[in-house]
């Protein structure tokens, strides 16, 4: 509510027809009314209602330096309200608001078609905002304004073929210790599709190999990347949303994830279609290596609003899963766990941790340390683990031809 300097306007407010609605989509109609009430007779010359929306980015460059800013406009319309339908005019031809009487002037706008707007957003260096504004003009005093914001959420369907396609990648890294080569670690990972919605599980198939002398820890996390463009420069913020971890992998061993899940938390959908603000998501799969930088592999994710639906989508997803299982079936099953073996490592043992290292302080649990090889390993034998040759179990049959 806004009042004039001389308190002539008692009520000046915008009211939407559906006040309980949380957001609008492209093609929807936004309607409402402007409510006016004067404390004493008040003359007006016109009432305009406009709807506008756009993106704004601003980079702050310090206290004594100028900031960079950039804007994009997505929506701008205006209509003139017909005051003569409810208001009478005085001798000078001005419209007259009578005191202690509530006036309601209706308005309505149709939002652009789907795909032409960008979802509402608010971040550290920018925002996408939409609002309706009413301007009441008078013959002498300054114009009065009132404004009401509304949310836009463009639907994002994850049933698109490009989002149902799987994503896979692999990466490796050579590890050194005091500038001496110390083996390498590698990651190969795959997910069945790129598109997901809130609350859905992402199935991760991955293989981790460790040929260095250290105990490494495999982890996965959903990452949000916020990018802001202004003045030709981009600022990017990364946020870790949720994580899962695997088992420690000792030297010369590997670990395999077959369908390990991580759930998509409650978050905003991917922000697409804006040239100056982007919100992308990724599945980051990485190995924590004590005393060295992580080995990081990222697979793209798109968080949508419309979940999987329809026979075609389910069939595509199932075929993608079948392909995933067939392509990963060549991986050997993980060896028996060494955690069942009792060991008593003393300070003088050859596998005593020499360096404690943590994953950036994100985990409170100790993740082991830097382990160096010794000439002789007094280590209990592992549980029985063998591979069976299928050809020896099913020898080929020989048919004699006479």
From TrEMBL:
Superkingdom classification of source: Eukaryota
Annotated Gene Ontology cellular component terms: cytoplasm
Location of this chain's protein in the cell: Cytoplasm
InterPro entries: Arrestin-like_C, Arrestin-like_N, Arrestin_C-like, Arrestin_domain-protein, Ig_E-set
One MF annotation (Gene Ontology) recorded for this entry: ubiquitin protein ligase binding
Domain Arrestin C-terminal-like: 181-308
Entry keywords, A to Z: Cell cycle, Cytoplasm, Disulfide bond, Isopeptide bond, Phosphoprotein, Transcription, Transcription regulation, Ubl conjugation
GO biological process, one term: protein transport
Assigned protein family: Belongs to the arrestin family.
Record's subunit section: Homodimer; disulfide-linked. Interacts with TXN/thioredoxin through its redox-active site. Interacts with transcriptional repressors ZBTB16, ZBTB32 and HDAC1. Interacts with DDIT4.
The protein's role, per its UniProt record: May act as an oxidative stress mediator by inhibiting thioredoxin activity or by limiting its bioavailability. Interacts with COPS5 and restores COPS5-induced suppression of CDKN1B stability, blocking the COPS5-mediated translocation of CDKN1B from the nucleus to the cytoplasm. Functions as a transcriptional repressor, possibly by acting as a bridge molecule between transcription factors and corepressor complexes, and over-expression will induce G0/G1 cell cycle arrest. Required for the maturation of natural killer cells. Acts as a suppressor of tumor cell growth.
Protein name: Thioredoxin-interacting protein
